[in-house]
Design brief:
The chain is mainly β. It has a single domain, classed as N-utilization substance G protein NusG, insert domain (mini-chromosome maintenance (MCM) complex, domain 2), CATH 2.60.320. The chain contains one helix and eight strands, in the order ββββββαββ. The protein has a five-stranded antiparallel beta sheet with strand order 1-7-8-2-3, with no helix packed on it. A three-stranded antiparallel beta sheet has the order 4-5-6. A hairpin with a 2-residue loop joins strand 5 and strand 6. The chain is globular. It starts with a strand and ends in a 9-residue tail after the last strand.
């Protein structure tokens, strides 16, 4: 799991990227059994249940993206490097702070 936003963000959407291009945005609170994403080497299948997203099938050899488990917090990402697919959870900052400098 990789984080790209502050962990105090309220999770709202799932963003799906293929070849570093945003291909879809979905609400995190709607359950979906299978979302098929066209990857560079074949399909990647995503499932969304109970405000959690996980890769349930992939065409890559090592299946690392499936082994990463589910993501649920804003800033978490699932990545399938061979297929060049990234699934990110984005959100809204609850506290209204966008950065801190020391």
């Amino acid at each position: 799991k990789f984080y790209t936003e502050a962990p105090d963000m309220q999770p709202r959407k799932i963003q799906i990227f293929s070849e570093n291009t945003l291909v879809d945005q979905l609400p995190l609170d709607e359950d979906r059994e299978e979302i098929t994403i066209a990857g560079a080497r074949g399909p990647v299948v995503l499932s969304v249940k109970h405000r959690r997203a996980k890769v349930v099938a992939t065409s890559c050899r090592h299946k690392t993206c499936m082994k990463m488990g589910s993501i649920h917090a804003s800033g978490q990402n699932l990545v399938c490097i061979p297929n060049r697919v990234r699934i990110a959870i984005t959100g809204q900052n609850v506290q209204g702070i966008d950065g801190v400098v020391y």
